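Hey team,

Filing this mostly as a record. A colleague (T.K.) asked me to run one chain through the structure pipeline before their review meeting, and I want the input and output archived in the tracker in case anyone asks later how it was produced. No errors, nothing strange. Just documentation.

Input sequence:
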Amino acid sequence: MLERNGITATSTTGTPFKKVFLVDIANVASGGIATKTELADLMAIDDPHDLNGDGSTTFTFPFVTIESVLPLNSTTLLITNDNNYPGAGGRDLNSDNNEFIKIHLDTELDLATFAN
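Output structure:
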């Protein structure tokens, strides 16, 4: 599950909130409570080799339109955004980029959960 607010890196107020959670609804009775586990904070992704060349060891994915999460294997997610052309504002006011990122998880997922 994606949880995100409408704030981007270029917003003038507020803090961007973009996270991926695993919600387990197995064995939840009617009216029961599901468990939710944070898998990734998309505003604080480890980037120890500074792959985007911004001088930081943290990468951010600050888009309002983060829309897809695909498990590639038990420890890797593919996250994508939709640019909502002609809107802009994810990284800067002049861009309208689509981006795809692969995130390595610290926890191993049970892929059978996604098959149901």
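Quick notes for T.K.: The two ends are 14 Å apart (CA to CA). Strands lie at 2-4, 18-24, 35-41, 45-46, 58-59, 66-73, 76-81, 100-104.
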